[in-house]
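User: Could you check the structure of this?
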Amino acid sequence: MSANVALRNKILNDYGSAIGTGTLTIYSGTAPANADTALSGNTALAAHTLAGFASASSGSMTANAIADDTIDATGTATFARIVSGSYVEQLTLGTSGAQVIVSSLSYVAGGTSQITSVTITKGA
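Assistant: Sure, the predicted structure tokens are below.
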């Protein structure tokens, strides 16, 4: 199946409307196989409230600026999930080359969790 840019942008904008004000939680541990798989042995390190997404362009969309959060637990950040009602999206996380870009993977309780960007892309 293949979609043109206009359709990919429409899908992403609908997606952004569904999860745009959800909570993005950063976790340690091995990421579950997919967003339908329950967390197992993972620790929630920090939880950020999203402030929506910019309109999709060229098959990608980026989250609006995300406020920093106080880190709740110490650990190494490995993945993130956005939860909004019954919707769950599991995202890759790193300091570069991931869907969620953070300033550091080393989280220490009481410190500050900073998300540099969140970008979602819909392939052709």
